Amino acid sequence: MTGTPATRDIHAYLAELEDIPGTRVFTAARARRGYHINQFAMSLMKPENRARFHADERAYLDEWPISEEAKAALLARDYNALLDMGGNVYFLSKLFSSDGIPFAEAVSTMTDMTFPEYREMMLKGGRSPEGLRSIKGGY
Fold first, then answer.
1. Do the beta carbons of residue 111 and residue 22 sit within 8 Å?
2. What mean pLDDT comes out for the span 12-17?
3. Exposure string over 57-94, b if 16+ CB within 10 A, otherwise e
4. What average pLDDT does the chain have?
5. Which of 4, 48, 73, 123 could form a disulfide with 78 if both were Cys (CB 3.0 to 4.6 A apart)?
6. 40: closest CA among 23, 28, 58, 24?
7. Is 70 exceeded by the pLDDT of residue 66?
């Protein structure tokens, strides 16, 4: 990154955020793209909506202006795909909570680890800062 935030091209700066391995920074662009995914997820805060969703997930999703790709990811509980489409993990937590899945267990599905491996890593202080730090740089 060169220049001060005031002189730097904001689009180039935001593009740099895509170079963080295994991380999806929730930018304004992602927020716009995932708006309806996140609104759907927030609707699950109401017990009556959770009941309707679990009674017929597809029918409930069809009430929302969500793409077919996003509906398929929601039905499959493909959280990485949903994050790529602008889902926010804190909104999506309403979905896995409504499924009775603890936050840490659901988040572990977004890694290449099993839940026990993920839990152990977190108990030991989290992911090591050593290793791949840049996708395009390979370091």
1. yes
2. 73
3. eeebbeeeebeeebbebbeeebbeebbbbbbbbebbbb
4. 86
5. 73
6. 58
7. yes
Q: Is the dihedral of CA 52, 55, 60, 61 positive or negative?
A: positive
pLDDT in tens, 83-126: 999 999 999 999 999 999 999 899 888 888 899 998 998 999 88
In the chain, what are the domain boundaries? 26-123
- CATH class as words, domain 26-123: mainly alpha
Helix (H) or strand (E) holding 35: helix 35-43
DSSP 23: -
For 20, what's the count of Cα atoms within 13 Å in the CB-facing half-sphere?
A: 10
Lookup: tokens for 139: 């370091």
HSE of 106, CA atoms in CB hemisphere, 13 A: 22
Long-range pairs for 13-18: beta carbons < 8 A, 24 or more residues apart: 18/135
Average pLDDT over residues 70-82: 96
DSSP state of 126: S
Closest CA to 88 of 22, 136, 137, 40: 40
Cβ–Cβ < 8 Å for 125, 10: no
| pLDDT (0 to 100) of residue 10 | 77
